[in-house]
């Protein structure tokens, strides 16, 4: 099973995403079952945000984790840029109340806003010192943002960066992913299997993806997930409301892609040869 280490915690390399979950009360029980299925199958990380359904996803997660040992979970949430200044503690408290938790393990600055970066991370660090988050990080940061952050007095405390990354969207490989590896900053990959609205080719129908899937007796989605975490220190957080799909997602941690597999996938979806704008959903 592949793992990632964030803030000295060794975590399974596939977690549970929750974007667009909690929005429809008619499927709440199914979504809760999906999250619990993932946890029972070996996932530990649940990624959410105050933005997702204006707190509805956090509320759903709070319901799903009732009865679980908090020490066996790794909860990630995010704060919106316009809430980062003097009101950050109130917003984190609201997230904790929805989650039914005393702390989150990782609190992310959801994307960069207009406030000075030093002021932002000072507030995040204050939340860490108060014990309301074990660590803090960023999301939707590109290499220039990360370089600027790293050079700030407490910038090296950043525990992770969360960006869009999948087989069909490899722009971060040109410079950002290598930078993060050299500086020991894990990457959290959101949308690791793409979605209906994103960025080009249908990965699941690609002939090379299907060939690799057949070799491993796996689904195309599992191969795409296995590819996303084949690099060191990448945590993927796919979202699904289907319990059976959740089981498949978690099982993808056990697929080992060999050089021939990777060559086929790289041929179908080549690595970038020049700097590209950061993909954001």
From TrEMBL:
InterPro entries given in the database record: AKR (IPR020471), NAD(P)_OxRdtase_dom_sf (IPR036812), NADP_OxRdtase_dom (IPR023210)
GO molecular-function terms, A-Z: oxidoreductase activity
Top-level taxon in the UniProt lineage: Bacteria
Site (Lowers pKa of active site Tyr): 78
Positions with a binding annotation for substrate: 110
NADP-dependent oxidoreductase domain mapped to chain residues: 13-267
Protein name as catalogued: NADP-dependent oxidoreductase domain-containing protein
Species per Swiss-Prot/TrEMBL record: Secundilactobacillus collinoides
């Amino acid at each position: 099973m592949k793992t990632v280490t964030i803030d000295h915690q060794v975590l399974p390399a596939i977690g549970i995403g929750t974007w667009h979950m909690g929005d429809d009360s008619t499927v709440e029980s199914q979504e809760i079952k999906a999250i619990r299925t993932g946890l029972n199958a070996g996932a530990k990380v649940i990624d959410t945000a105050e933005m997702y359904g204006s707190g509805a996803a956090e509320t759903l997660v709070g319901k799903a984790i009732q009865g679980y040992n908090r020490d066996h979970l790794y909860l990630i949430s995010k704060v919106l840029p316009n809430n980062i200044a003097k009101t950050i503690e109130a917003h984190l408290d609201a997230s904790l109340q929805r989650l039914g938790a005393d702390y989150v393990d990782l609190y992310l600055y959801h994307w960069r806003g207009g406030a000075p970066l030093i002021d932002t991370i000072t507030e995040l660090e204050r939340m860490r010192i108060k014990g309301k988050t074990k660590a803090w990080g960023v999301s939707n940061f590109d290499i220039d943002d990360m370089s600027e952050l790293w050079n700030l007095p407490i910038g090296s405390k950043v525990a992770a960066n969360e960006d869009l990354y999948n087989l069909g969207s490899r722009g971060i490989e040109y410079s950002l992913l290598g930078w993060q590896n050299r500086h020991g900053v894990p990457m959290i990959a959101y949308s690791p299997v793409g979605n209906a609205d994103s960025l080009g080719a249908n990965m699941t129908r690609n002939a090379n993806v299907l060939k690799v899937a057949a070799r491993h007796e796996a689904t195309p989605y599992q191969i795409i997930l296995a590819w996303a975490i084949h690099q060191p220190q990448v945590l993927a957080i796919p979202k699904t409301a289907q319990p059976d799909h959740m089981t498949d997602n978690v099982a993808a941690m056990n697929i080992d892609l060999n050089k021939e597999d990777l060559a086929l996938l790289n041929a179908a979806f080549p690595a970038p040869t020049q700097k590209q704008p950061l993909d954001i959903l």
